[in-house]
């Protein structure tokens, strides 16, 4: 079968390769891929990966071979999932039942393809909050997939949602997504005007992190799921952690271990129901044939398009 592999000599450090069709264990299904979406994280990893490595988290497909032990979905069922092994950009993948879910009739393949890694990360982050109804929640990185979903999920939880953006021209987008207030800042100045925050969802980190922690409410939680602003952080325990009443929690979130708390299949089912009921929007979708994956990967790194690139496996 054909698959996308890493190769630093090609555009986006990606190209096509050949591999043996996967052979699932009795409890696993074989899934024929119809579409997959690109995530900045995996494409960034591809830039430094050894030549010939498979790539890809998110996928949509149909059950080509159901689980031999009788536990699987019927052949032909549309499913969406993700591969921790990062090998989803291929004609076939193995379907572990903890990592995929059936797609409702009212949800398209392309819509479903945008959900796995970004949507599940956002959902897990929101689930770390407590007593959110009527409380203030701060979300940054809203132009990225996780922040895009997190803002909406926070609104659905009944919270007052504040979006932190870097540029004035991003304010209208945040408001269109339902933000109750928007703070324009690159270093955290001004966050206190809308805080403190019962829950802070951070995908930026870096120099912004100390201000995020300082503005987390007594008894609140700061969820860190990414560091687009850099990994180096300097902050004072006071007032950051135990100042202003303390009792703050910092939670480091990675989707790879969140599955231990809730199978991704259950999280995906929750997200799919919201999309089917038109309560959760998906990002703007840019569709192309999977032969264009290297070009769109490079464009994603260069921030040449907004939304989510969804590739169709022809």
Give structural attributes.
314 residues; alpha/beta; Quinone Oxidoreductase, Chain A, domain 1; Rossmann fold; six-stranded parallel sheet; 26% strand
In short:
The chain is an alpha/beta fold. The chain is 25% helix and 26% strand. The protein folds into two domains: 2-118 and 263-312, Medium-chain alcohol dehydrogenases, catalytic domain (Quinone Oxidoreductase, Chain A, domain 1), CATH 3.90.180.10; 129-252, Rossmann fold (3-Layer(aba) Sandwich).
Tell me about this structure.
The structure is a single chain. With 314 residues, this protein is α/β, with parallel strands linked by helices. It folds into 2 domains: 2-118 and 263-312, Medium-chain alcohol dehydrogenases, catalytic domain (Quinone Oxidoreductase, Chain A, domain 1, Alpha-Beta Complex), CATH 3.90.180; 129-252, Rossmann fold, CATH 3.40.50.720. It has helices at residues 40-46, 109-113, 116-127, 145-156, 171-176, 209-214, 237-240, 255-258, 264-276, 293-301; strands spanning 2-6, 14-18, 29-37, 58-65, 78-82, 92-95, 100-102, 136-140, 160-165, 181-184, 197-202, 216-224, 249-252, 285-289, 308-312. Strands 3, 4, 5, 6, 7, 14 and 15 form a 7-stranded mixed beta sheet that branches. A 6-stranded parallel beta sheet has the order 10-9-8-11-12-13. Helix 3 packs across helix 4 and helix 3 crosses helix 9 (264-276). The radius of gyration is 20 Å and the shape is globular.
């Amino acid at each position: 079968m054909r698959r996308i592999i890493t190769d630093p000599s090609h555009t986006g450090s990606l190209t096509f390769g050949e591999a043996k069709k996967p052979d699932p264990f009795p409890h696993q299904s074989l899934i024929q891929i119809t579409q997959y979406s690109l995530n900045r994280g995996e494409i960034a990893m591809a830039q430094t990966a050894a030549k010939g490595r498979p790539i890809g988290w998110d996928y949509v497909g149909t059950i080509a071979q159901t689980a031999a032990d009788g536990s699987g979905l019927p052949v032909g069922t549309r499913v969406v999932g993700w591969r921790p092994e990062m090998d989803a950009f291929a004609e076939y993948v193995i379907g572990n039942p903890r990592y995929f879910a059936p797609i409702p009739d009212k949800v398209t393949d392309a819509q479903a393809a945008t959900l796995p890694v970004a949507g599940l990360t956002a959902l897990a982050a929101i689930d770390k909050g407590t007593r959110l109804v009527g409380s203030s929640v701060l979300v940054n990185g809203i132009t990225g997939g996780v922040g895009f979903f997190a803002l909406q999920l926070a609104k659905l939880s009944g919270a007052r949602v504040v979006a932190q953006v870097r540029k004035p021209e991003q304010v209208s987008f945040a408001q269109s997504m339902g933000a109750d207030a928007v703070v324009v800042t690159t270093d955290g100045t001004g966050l206190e005007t809308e805080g403190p925050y019962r829950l802070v969802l951070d995908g930026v980190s870096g120099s912004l992190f100390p201000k995020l922690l300082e503005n987390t409410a007594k008894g609140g939680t700061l969820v860190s799921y990414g560091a687009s602003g850099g990994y180096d952080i300097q902050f004072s325990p006071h007032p950051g952690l135990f100042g202003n009443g303390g009792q703050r929690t910092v939670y480091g979130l990675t989707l790879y271990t969140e599955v231990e708390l809730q199978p991704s299949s259950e999280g995906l089912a929750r997200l799919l129901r919201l999309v089917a009921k038109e309560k959760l929007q998906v990002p703007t979708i840019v569709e192309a044939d999977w032969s264009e994956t290297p070009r769109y990967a490079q464009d994603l790194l260069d921030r040449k398009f907004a939304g989510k690139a969804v590739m169709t496996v022809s």
